[in-house]
Amino acid sequence: MTVDRAVLAFAGLVVLVGVALAHFVSPWWILLCVFAGANMIQAAFTGFCPAAMIFKAFGLKPGNAFR
């Protein structure tokens, strides 16, 4: 698995967890989905992604997006 795929999988997981928590616990958890989406948009323009840096530190191979 590359860093790119790990970041996409993690972002998807965060969105799904946020939706489940918003449904079962509190509607305020939808802000977790908003945060994930905003982070993905800023990473697309700046190339800076904290999750990518963490996955690199764990030893995942870099992909094309996060070098």
Q: How are the elements arranged and paired?
A:
Layout: H1 3-24, H2 30-46, H3 50-57
Helix pairs in contact: 1-2, 1-3
Structure description:
By secondary structure, the protein is mainly alpha-helical. The chain has one domain. It contains 3 helices and no strands. The longest helix is centred in the N-terminal third of the chain and has 22 residues, at 3-24. It is elongated, with a radius of gyration of 13 Å. The relative contact order is 0.23. The mean pLDDT is 93.
Q: Quick summary of this structure?
A:
This protein is mainly α and 67 residues long. Helix content is 70%, strand content 0%.
Strand content: under 5%
Q: What's the alpha carbon Rg, rounded to whole Å?
A: 13 Å
The biggest beta sheet reads: none
Low-pLDDT regions: none
Q: Could you estimate the helical fraction of the residues in percent?
A: over 70%
Distance between the termini: 14 Å
Whole-number mean pLDDT: 93
Secondary-structure element order, N to C: HHH
Total strands: the figure is: 0
Q: What structural class is derived from the secondary structure elements? A: mainly alpha
Large-scale geometry: elongated
How many H/I helices?
Answer: 3
Whole-number count of domains: 1
